[in-house]
Amino acid sequence: MPVLVIQTSFLGDMVLTTPLVAHLAERDEVDVVGTPAATALLANHPAVRRVIGYDKRGRQAGARGFATLSLELRRERYDRVFLAQGSMRSAALAFAAGIRERIGFDTSAGRALYSKRVPYIEEDHHAKRLLSLAGGSAASMRPRLYPGDAEVRAVDLLLAGVSGPFVAVAPGSVWPTKRWPLYDALARELTGRGTIVVIGSADDRELGAEILNAAGGRGVNATGKLSLLASAELIRRCSVLVTNDSAPQHLASAMNTPTVTIFGPTVPQFGFGPLAEKSATVGLDSLACRPCDRHGPVACPLRHWKCMREVGVAHVVTAIDQVSS
Hints:
The chain is built from twelve helices and twelve strands. A six-stranded parallel beta sheet has the order 3-2-1-4-5-6, sandwiched between helices. A six-stranded parallel beta sheet has the order 9-8-7-10-11-12, sandwiched between helices. The chain folds into two domains: about 140 residues, Glycogen Phosphorylase B (Rossmann fold); about 170 residues, Glycogen Phosphorylase B (Rossmann fold), CATH 3.40.50. About 35% of the residues lie in helices and about 15% in strands. It has about 325 residues and is an alpha/beta fold. Helix 4 links the parallel strand 4 and strand 5.
C-alpha cells in the first residue's frame, strides 16, 4: 500500500522533499500532494508513483476543493502520511482523508492533528529535517530531479547558438529584498568567461534584458521560456549558477551544478543553503541586522538594504572562482 507525502509550500521546498520521497520509496510506493507548479517538478521521478495536484489558491480553493481532495485521498486508503508542509490545512486534509499515521514536525501549525511529532532541528539543513520525518540518513540528503526528453529538446533549441561553457545567473525572487541588485555589473565582469544565460520566470524578462545589455548584448535571455524541469536541465549544463536565495539554487542542488548563492535578509543557517558538491554562499556576516526575516521582507525594515547593496561583485567573483576550481 502506498504512503503519502503532502508538500504544498514553495517550489524549493518540493525539491528539498525529494530525498524524503526517495528514502520512502526504498520500501513503499509513494504518492505526493503538491501545488500544480511544484508537482510538475516530479515528472519522471523514479521514486514517485503518482503526483496529486492541489490548486489550493485556484480552482480547488475553499471548502469544496478541500472536501473533494480529501475524499479522493480517502479512497486510496493510505496508512501513513508525512506532512512535509506543516500548515493546519495540510494536517486537516490528512485527518479528513482518514489516514491513521500522520507524521510531522513538533513546531508545525497543524501539529495538534498529528499522530506523531518529530523534533524540528533548527540547525539542520531542511532536506535533513524532512528526511528525519521517516528516519532517513543525512548521507542521502542531496535532492534529485529528472528532466525528460521534452526538457532536453527545449534546452537544445534554446542553446542552439551557444558554444563552449556558459555561466547561468538567476536574478529573480518572489521576495524583493532577496534580489541582489548588481547582476548587470557581474555580467560585465564575466563576459570573458563565456556566454551569460539568464534564467527565471516571465516576470524576470525585463531584468534579464538589462543584464545581457550590460554584457554587451551577448548571451541568452531564457526567462519565461522554459518549464521548471527544463530550467533544471539548463542549469545542469552550465559551468556555474549564480543565484539569490531562491528556487534556482535548489534546482542546482538537484542537478549537482556548482552554485554561488547570495544571501541578504536570510542566512544559510535557516537550513536552505545549496547542497551541490561545489557550492559557496556570499553574505555580509558582520551586519548586525541580519537575518531580519525567515523568507525576506518586501522592503528593508531599516530602509538601507545594506545586506544586498553592499555585497560587492568582487565577493561574488571570488566565490565563482572557488566553486569552479
